[in-house]
Design a protein that fits this description.
Keywords: Lyase, Magnesium, Metal-binding. InterPro entries: Isoprenoid_synthase_dom_sf, Terpene_synthase-like, Terpene_synthase_metal-bd. By secondary structure, this protein is an all-alpha fold. It has one domain: Farnesyl Diphosphate Synthase. It contains six helices and no strands. 15% of the residues are buried.
Length: 123
């Protein structure tokens, strides 16, 4: 990231800033929301632990929809540093909006990756 990634910036990100935590939470929630029913069935058979959605719902006494809401607010650091975790959350939308595209990477996800890396649009 060139001159932007200074020692101070690495110290900042090492302290777990809210935007990085929020991005991670969004990723975890998107996976859990899409996988919730699948995980529940697997849990019955294999004893898998609760999803983050269930944990949040139990801790805060809210419905599933409320447990999945997140808000990212800019901080006093360069946007170039804020965008990678935000973009990670955005790509999770691609992976999980129509099912678990990470675990089951065939179909649309395979087409997306192929379009991006194997057959990109020439510039």
């Amino acid at each position: 990231m060139g001159d932007i990634a200074t020692k101070e910036v690495f110290e900042w990100v090492s302290n777990g800033p809210k935007i990085v935590k929020a991005s991670s939470t969004v990723c975890r929630h998107m996976d859990d929301v899409v996988d919730h029913k699948f995980v529940q069935e697997r849990k019955k058979k294999h004893g898998v632990c609760a999803t983050s959605v269930e944990c949040y719902m139990n801790k805060h006494g809210v419905w599933e929809e409320e447990a999945c809401e997140e808000c990212l607010q800019p901080r006093d650091v360069p946007m170039a540093l804020l965008m990678p975790p935000v973009n990670l959350a955005r790509v999770m939308n691609v992976f999980y909006k129509d099912g678990d595209g990470y675990t089951h990477a065939g179909g649309p996800m395979k087409t997306f990756i192929s379009s991006l890396l194997v057959h990109p649009i020439p510039i």
